[in-house]
Predict the structure.
Amino acid sequence: MLKMDLYKVLLSPVVTEKANNVAEKHEQVVFKVLPQATKQDVKAAFELAFNAEVLAVTVTNVKGKAKRFGRFSGRRANWKKAYISLKPGQDFDLASNQK
């Protein structure tokens, strides 16, 4: 992918209790990514954006939940998340990211 396209791969960090536990125990970070992004795209985008070396990337497709809004049935959108494993000794700061 092009350099500008790589900045669009990582959509947002996932900040949940499960994501925090994964970060503490396994030195991984969790991001919401584009549905068409590959593991290689996610790795390249993370290394470009945060200047940290990536050991491995695992991606998961999350199915949207079926919801009801009164008498109307609907469905939330499907999305993809990536578990990014950092190499030992690597760290990144989400707040200091400058695009």
Observations:
- The chain has three helices and six strands.
- Residues 3-86 form a domain with the Alpha-Beta Plaits fold (CATH 3.30.70.330).
- The beta strands are 10-13, 28-33, 54-62, 66-69, 72-75, 79-86.
- The first strand starts at residue 10 and ends at 13.
